[in-house]
Amino acid sequence: MNDQQPVQLRVGLAQVDTTVGDLSGNADLVRTWTAKAAEDGVHLVVFPEMTLTGYPAEDLVLRESFAHASEHALVDLATRLADDGLGEVAVVVGYLAHTEGSGPAPVDQPPTDDDRPGDANPRRGAPRNAAALLYGGEVVARYYKRHLPNYGVFDEARYFVPGTEMPIVRLHGVDVALTVCEDLWVEGGPCGVIGQAGADVVVSPNASPYERAKDDLRLPLVRRRAEEARATVVYCNQVGGQDELVFDGDSLVVNAAGELLARAPQFVEHLLTVDLTIDPSSVPERTDGRIGPMTVTRHLLSEEPAPAFEPRPSTIVAPLDDCEEVWRALVLGLRDFIDKNGIPSVVLGLSGGIDSALVAALAVDALGADRVYGVGLPSKWSRAHSLSDAEDSAERLGLHYSVVPIAPMVEAYEKSVELSGTAAENLQARVRGTLLMGLSNQHGHLLLATSNKSEVAVGYSTLYGDAAGGFAPIKDVPKTLVWAIARWRNEEARRHGGTEPIPQNSIDKPPSAELAPGQQDSDSLPSYEELDAVIADYVDRDLGMAQLLERGHDPEVVAKVLRLVDMAEFKRRQSAPGTKISLKAFGRDRRLPITNRWRETPPTVLEGAAQ
Amino acid sequence: MNDQQPVQLRVGLAQVDTTVGDLSGNADLVRTWTAKAAEDGVHLVVFPEMTLTGYPAEDLVLRESFAHASEHALVDLATRLADDGLGEVAVVVGYLAHTEGSGPAPVDQPPTDDDRPGDANPRRGAPRNAAALLYGGEVVARYYKRHLPNYGVFDEARYFVPGTEMPIVRLHGVDVALTVCEDLWVEGGPCGVIGQAGADVVVSPNASPYERAKDDLRLPLVRRRAEEARATVVYCNQVGGQDELVFDGDSLVVNAAGELLARAPQFVEHLLTVDLTIDPSSVPERTDGRIGPMTVTRHLLSEEPAPAFEPRPSTIVAPLDDCEEVWRALVLGLRDFIDKNGIPSVVLGLSGGIDSALVAALAVDALGADRVYGVGLPSKWSRAHSLSDAEDSAERLGLHYSVVPIAPMVEAYEKSVELSGTAAENLQARVRGTLLMGLSNQHGHLLLATSNKSEVAVGYSTLYGDAAGGFAPIKDVPKTLVWAIARWRNEEARRHGGTEPIPQNSIDKPPSAELAPGQQDSDSLPSYEELDAVIADYVDRDLGMAQLLERGHDPEVVAKVLRLVDMAEFKRRQSAPGTKISLKAFGRDRRLPITNRWRETPPTVLEGAAQ
Questions:
Q1: Active site includes A181?
Q2: Comparing C-alpha atoms, which of B9, B534, B600 is closest to residue B253?
Q3: A570 contacts in B (CB within 8 Å)?
């Protein structure tokens, strides 16, 4: 500051639900929420990462027509905000920048060598994961994300060139520095630069996908960066589902002392506001120019402080408990997949088992009962309770329900070709899949697959049978968690005096695929407690045999589970997308070859290998 | 050199077919081919990139047990080669290195921040894409790939830390520098460093996937690098199929003057040898230490020249013509997928159409007729020629053939649920898919999907119907090319006086899905010439609307095709893998979101956007 008077700023965090590729729809979202913020007296409002394009836009980023349209949409948005009379609000939005051919090429970008087919070369121009500050109808400052995550579900080194400039904008006498998402995860990164340059506020637009217990990581992280930047960090995360990912919001604000000032609810669009009072004596001298790998530039919007106002207390919402958090993640992931793709309704097979009962309950919570169609598909091996539990589930949920016995189709096949053993079992599952897809095609429903993570892991499902569907809501939910969230959902209903949506019998009875007489999952699989524990260590944590045995798993169980998981890769490659909730979900998060002769071997061999 | 006598070296390029994950099998391959090389008097033999692990190993790279096993396999291989009496041959092999926690972190690697879940963090240790020189039972030198491709089908920034060291090994008085694959694509990269440091030979182990006409790119590229390095470049590329990729070999040797000295055949394992005579006056002074971003170290193996020998002429094999090249790529891609996965036999539906006739011919060329099972699945809409052409195809190929009419199954469904229009059409395709999967499960066949790239692009296939299968051999072959290679294969048969494998009638008749009376593809699609031209520009070249119209495509055709391509993403996500032959194949090469509202719009809007 120049003067020594404390200055105030009301900051808004608009955690909105954008849609990938919908430039105009996302721009409208920014206008709507900026208007709300303005009504609420906000001076600076921050939107999530890549607000205009949605995140992740994947290979759309490489299409020049899309990148140009994003640049255009940004300039257009600045104008429209001013036309809306919102020019006096400083708006930070994320977008896809396309800086013609400029920018340093990281070592892993493809060469510009003329002999590389130009069309295969994403280096035409330099796409940037960018954030801009809009004010008075103009694009005042542009920041290019410096740290590009390229692990787990992220492929940003495929798309973006890292930035080297750090714009700091002075608004009402308050210095506001820009960063984007991953920049906040890196010690000695942009926040270190800001700490040396001097700023009051660091804004951080994010697209940080939900993972169980991830909210436990954000607060300590943001605390350390706020201390490093010696400024208040404004962390705004997006909300909503995008294919395999769901974003939970959980936006927060932490001051330079590491105090949590405000925290937004999870899984809902929300405008979080916080009133900042900056004590000039607490902030260092301002510098600019080259600091470490970055160049700091300063932009003056307004020196005069905002008119003094009475600070309001901010909301600090506590993160949700595990089961509710998972439930809300699955509901939002499913709802956004269905609605953003313009799908009117969903259909699924109701077996009376826990998986289909749970998916039906999720679908009704996500879409309402009128958009959900359940079908009972009994076979000659189905037991009486199967159909009655399916009917019970349908009644509790009030969804559309019908029954189609599969025997006539199964018999027709068996008259034409001789099928026995697994082939005969899978036939029943595929007849169901074909019937459900027929109803999907006939009525425009999307078929929901009911496979859980335990099944997907060990391939305990029939390709084109029960694995068929356009979306698999519980694909990343292990069976033991399936039971836990089913119980939680019923308790939640009891707490609110409503009907329990999931039949207790579906929760209690031993799981069975019912593809053969008296068949139970436990005939061919270890207990789900054992199975899920091994899956968590082998799939989610990627541990090898020696480590798995150190963790105390039964060697025979480990050997069997690993073999099943390794052999099922070809099935997973053709499975429907589903919402990621775990440390590592099947899909882009875990990329293993189908053709793969590597098998984890006994530790004796590994000890040799470890030398 | 120290003295001024010309020195000689016989170099071997072993373009072998490794298998991902098969450390011991790949090591045995190195021992076998090194023995051949030794018999042939070779002093230095070069193997492809990541020889021991196979390429691409994808997320196996991140598993510590696998990385440790790779390190162990390398040391073990050096010992075994010496035990085999091959210690005097210098052997360059690729492997996965795991250098504990060392190495610079590129900007796009995940942070080591403690709050990042350690299990999700590939930064534990530093995986390297490495090449080692083995000699006298020891690992003499290790080189870590510097340039990590992270575009198209490549994700190397996800896996590896780039190297900064350049070892140069003196063997029989000849200075041999190491590089890996992408390092050769970068001007001013390692070859520039080598040019300054001084070396006689640059070895370059490669895993460069086949693409149509890619061989036209390699020679001029290697020429420029040889000139830049002022040394002879020994480019050894792997052979074989790995899931979506096929590698064509095409290994070559170019001297510092840019002369092509030797070139290997495509799509076959081969030991290419070349006799080098280095004129000491032609090479610069040697230096070492820090040069640009790299540190050059020198290793002396043997100063004394190899005993003089009579140089032999080298083979220079001309690249194949387009149709033969594509055919060989598809055959090898299919054969390796089936054999490396230990699959005994394949089954496919024979419709009498060109796609299934072509896939059957490919399968017989790849596996032999005795491992191929064809099934005719006539419906009430199949015309007489369909079954007769299918039978003709089966007879010409000598494969196992049977017929299963689908009417009884179709009727059974239609009695249970009311299906009309597309739903009724898809039902027939799914009954076929279910029958074929039943035979697959019953007899252990892998089902081959017969979809071509044109169909996959516009979604002109039935999910779980004709799209069903474990592998899709012509998934990346546009329909117009399907006809072209079918004609080529028949001509090839005529040239060798054999039976034409593909019925002329299947080639000549207008394509039809035969799911409705009198149906033809042309009822719902533009001509395949128009369709494939738009697909090549929109999918392979990623052009936007304005550019597509500039290229002279019909605006209505473009609008229709783009809509179909955009809408079919959810189907492609569940499709079987198939061999990539084009600039951009569906699969890991083109990563678009399913939930995606972006649509290419008329140029008037785009012109605005382009401003």
A1: yes
A2: B9
A3: 470
A453-462, B248-257, B278-287: which range is least confident on average? B278-287
Beta bridge partners of B202: B177, B233
Which residues lie below 8 Å from residue A100, measured CB to CB, with a gap of 6+?
A: A125, A126
ipTM: 0.93
The identity of residue B112, as a single letter, is T
Q: How confident is the model at residue B214 (pLDDT cuts 50, 70, 90)?
A: confident
The per-residue DSSP string of A154-175 comes to --HHHH-PPP-EEEEEEETTEE
Residues 270-309 on B with a CB inside 8 Å of A are none
Beta strands in A308-414 (DSSP E): 345-349, 372-376, 400-403
Chain B nearest CA to A432, separation (Å): 10
Chain A residues whose CB is inside 8 A of the B117 CB are: 211, 217, 583
The rounded distance, in Å, linking the Cα atoms of A224 and A246 is 26
A211 CB contacts (<8 Å, ≥6 apart)?
A580, A581, A582, A583, B117
Tokens of B479: 């329909």
Nearest to A564 by CA among A589, A590, A529, A539: A539
What pTM did the predictor assign?
A: 0.94
Cβ neighbour number for residue A284 with a 10 Å cutoff: 12
Q: Do residues A233 and A254 touch, judged by C-beta distance below 8 A?
A: yes
The residue in chain A having the minimum alpha-carbon distance to the alpha carbon of residue B597 is A21
What pLDDT, on the 0 to 100 scale, is given for residue B5?
Answer: 78
User: Could A405 and B422 be called an inter-chain contact, meaning their C-beta atoms sit closer than 8 Å?
Assistant: no
Q: Domains of chain B (ranges plus CATH)?
A: 2-318 (3.60.110.10), 323-610 (3.40.50.620)
By Cβ distance, the residue of B117, B545, B574 closest to A576 is: B574
* Mean pLDDT across chain B: 92
**In this complex, is the C-beta atom of A402 within 8 Å of any C-beta atom belonging to chain B?**
no
Sequence-distant (≥ 6) Cβ neighbours of residue B145 within 8 angstroms = B128, B129, B130, B131, B156, B160, B162, B163, B179, B180, B181, B182, B183
Report whether B60 contacts B24 (CB < 8 A): no
CA dihedral B56, B59, B64, B68 (to 10 degrees): -10
Please check whether residue B516 is in contact with residue B425, taking contact to mean a CB–CB distance below 8 angstroms: yes
Q: Do A220 and B596 touch (CB under 8 A)?
A: no
Whether A417 and B430 lie within 8 Å, measured CB to CB: no
Note whether A485 and A507 are within 8 A (CB): no
B452-470 pLDDT, tens digit per residue, is 999 999 999 999 999 999 9
For chain B, give percent helix, strand, coil, nearest 5.
Answer: 40, 20, 40
Closest chain B C-alpha to A303 CA, distance in angstroms? 33
Does the beta-carbon distance from B435 to A426 stay under 8 Å?
Answer: no
Cα(A525)–Cα(B414) distance, integer angstroms: 37
pLDDT at A283: 66
Asked whether residue A463 carries a pLDDT value surpassing 70, the answer given is yes
Choose, out of B151, B334, B411, the residue to mutate when testing the contact with A (most A CBs < 10 Å).
B151
Please tell me the total number of residues recorded for chain B in this structure.
611
Taking the C-alpha atoms of residue B32 and residue B38, their distance in angstroms, rounded to an integer, is 10
Clarify whether A145 is annotated catalytic. Answer: yes
Is the predicted pLDDT of residue B451 greater than 70, yes or no? yes
Question: In what side-by-side order are the strands of the sheet with A372-376?
Answer: A400-403, A372-376, A345-349, A445-447
